[in-house]
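Database export, one record per block. Field names are fixed; values are copied verbatim from the stored entry.
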Amino acid sequence: MTTSGERDQKLTLRTRLRALRRSGPVPDMSAEVLLAADAFAVSAGRTVCAYLASRFEPGSLAMVEALRSRGCRVLLPVVVGPALDWAVYDGELRAGAFGLREPVGPLLGPAAVGSAALVLAPALAVDHAGVRLGKGGGYYDRALGLSTGPVVAVVRDEEFVPSLPAEPHDVPVDAVLTPSRGLVRLPL
């Protein structure tokens, strides 16, 4: 059961972490993502669910292009109502919900995340037990519940923390990827 204390803690953390993100450079993460793909034996022809970073988020279009140049089939999220749908990224993007960029291809359905050999998920923070703090909309928790492959959250070094408040709907991640530590499998 979720308590108002846990929700309040998460709200406070989100506010603080967003402010910190605006004060530092945005890590590209292209090289680190390829190392994560190697660690999980993701080769050419395999599907990877990724994301396009928002303004202050770690990651970049170059991160997604690195996966494509490896020969991976890259699916990117498309916000459809309360869920994330997925479409193949073929190099063409359009403006989407919440100011995000999204692929222009046909939608594959929310369950397409289940076909991924690797899922890269954005996060504001991740703890040593694999608890992921997202932006608060629940889109990724709903999507990650459909995933069968390993889930790797991509964060800045200072966003990998010892502990975070958790609620029953929070889907844990299998690993975290940071600029200086690279891939860390969880829980520690």
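Remark 1: The longest helix spans residues 4-21.
Remark 2: The mean pLDDT is 94.
End of record.
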